[in-house]
Design goal:
Layout: H1 15-18, E1 23-28, E2 35-39, E3 43-44, E4 50-51, E5 55-56, E6 59-62, E7 65-68, H2 71-74, E8 79-84, E9 90-94, E10 122-123, E11 129-130, H3 133-136, E12 141-146, E13 153-158, E14 186-187, E15 193-194, H4 197-200, E16 205-210, E17 217-221, E18 250-251, E19 257-258, H5 261-265, E20 269-274, E21 281-285, E22 289-290, E23 296-297, E24 301-302, E25 308-309, E26 313-314, E27 320-321, H6 324-327, E28 332-337, E29 346-350, E30 366-367, E31 373-374, E32 378-379, E33 385-386, H7 389-392
Antiparallel strand pairs: 1-2, 3-4, 5-8, 6-7, 8-9, 10-11, 12-13, 14-15, 16-17, 18-19, 20-21, 22-23, 24-25, 26-27, 28-29, 30-31, 32-33
Length: about 400
């Protein structure tokens, strides 16, 4: 506003001088004490020296000029209207969730083309909270995204062997701390098969547990079963007894050794087998060998293979000892086996007049307890002539 002029001076009105060149006309106030500017659009103030008004579609100063705030000039098409801020700048009111002085920026949590819905991986428009593995996957995932409608966090890529939409489930076959190892009794992560006697030890074990690396099952085999899966019954042991007893013909469980004629029977047997308790071998001795190992040939037998009677014996394979008492009725002076490779009887040398073969009979002309006298009516031993009336009594 111009200063008051003395009344005797003539008023000169000039838009450039009195209104900064920003008025379309100028005059004086009614009391003619000052100039009155009629500002051009966008200018305000007594001398049109300020930009305005503010508010929707207001004006700001740019390069010494008052410029109206408009969406085409100061905002992108994503602005709804534009106002002049108190600090002399155009402020755009943005559509949806667009931000920035010109509504040209869309936060990363929003879909970047329209900024009117959550971006992938974010949910609950308009806050659009980011899906994260801690809150939405129980801390058990490497990544997570949202569903197509961006309402829920889904598709957790679970770590280790966690399962479930939020990776909060760990099957019983795994350790529950981080679901990254097989549970007790299981092996081969991440399949984690349960070790069982039936499946891994051929039903021939008392217990089964995984090895320390949990790569296979370790069986405690029953009896003498061997092999990783207790499926081998060693030679000489009977699998029909659950590998708990030697086969017939073997002894010494669990190190069952086969009975053989040479070792266990001194090569003096026709056959050999095991005892009922499988503790010793039983030999079927050949010829007249005897003893547990066919090592004895009793005194009545002889020969390289105990296959003949010993001297003085008869009747193989009994081989009785020829004796005067048993074979000659005690009526002999000597007795010997019948000369023969395998004698079957004894030969008596009868005493006095006892008769062969067994010295049992005393002929009628002899008598006495030892057949050593003449019999009745006989004289002159040992001829023992019969006494007769004709010869000895002149027939008188």
């Amino acid at each position: 506003m111009r200063t008051q002029l003395p009344q005797h001076q003539t008023e000169q009105h000039d838009i450039a001088t009195d209104c900064g060149g920003n008025a379309h006309s100028v005059t004086t106030t009614p009391d003619r004490t000052a100039c009155l500017c009629f500002c051009s659009p966008g200018y305000i103030g007594a001398s049109c020296s300020s930009c305005g008004p503010t508010g929707p579609n207001g004006y700001i100063e740019e390069a010494g000029q008052c410029i109206q705030c408009t969406i085409p000039t100061h905002c992108t098409p994503t602005g709804t209207d534009v106002v002049t801020a108190d600090n002399g700048v155009c402020v755009c009111n943005c559509k949806d969730q667009w931000v920035g002085d010109k509504c040209d920026s869309c936060p990363v949590r929003l879909e970047q083309t329209s900024c009117d819905k959550c971006a992938v991986g974010y949910i609950n428009y308009p806050t659009c909270d980011q899906c994260n593995v801690i809150d939405h996957c129980s801390g058990h995932a490497t990544s997570v995204t949202s569903d197509p409608a961006n309402k829920f966090c889904t598709d957790c890529v679970c770590t280790n062997s966690w399962t479930g939409s939020s990776c909060d489930s760990c099957a019983a076959i795994y350790t529950q701390a981080d679901c990254d190892q097989c549970a007790e009794g299981h092996f081969a992560y991440d399949v984690c098969t349960l070790c069982t006697v039936k499946d891994h030890c051929s039903n021939h074990a008392s217990t089964v547990v995984p090895n320390s690396q949990k790569t296979k099952c370790d069986c405690t085999c029953n009896h003498a079963w061997t092999g990783d899966s207790c499926d081998i019954c060693p030679p000489g042991i009977d699998p029909a007894t659950d590998c708990a007893q030697c086969l017939v013909g073997y002894i010494g469980f669990p190190n069952c050794v086969k009975c053989n004629i040479a070792t266990n029977c001194n090569n003096n047997a026709d056959s050999v087998t095991s005892s009922p308790d499988f503790l010793s071998c039983q030999c079927d001795c050949r010829n007249m060998w005897s003893g547990a190992t066919c090592s004895q040939c009793n005194s009545q037998f002889d020969g390289a293979d105990c296959d003949v009677c010993a001297s003085g014996h008869t009747g193989y394979n009994i081989c009785d000892l020829c004796t005067i008492a048993d074979h000659c009725e005690n009526h002999a002076s000597a007795v010997t086996p019948v000369p023969d490779p395998n004698p079957t009887s004894c030969t008596c040398t009868c005493r006095n007049h006892w008769e062969l073969p067994d010295c049992l009979t005393c002929p009628p002309q002899f008598g006495g307890s030892d057949c050593d006298t003449c019999g009745i009516h006989r004289i002159n031993y040992p001829t023992c002539t019969l006494c007769t009336v004709n010869d000895d009594c002149s027939n008188h």
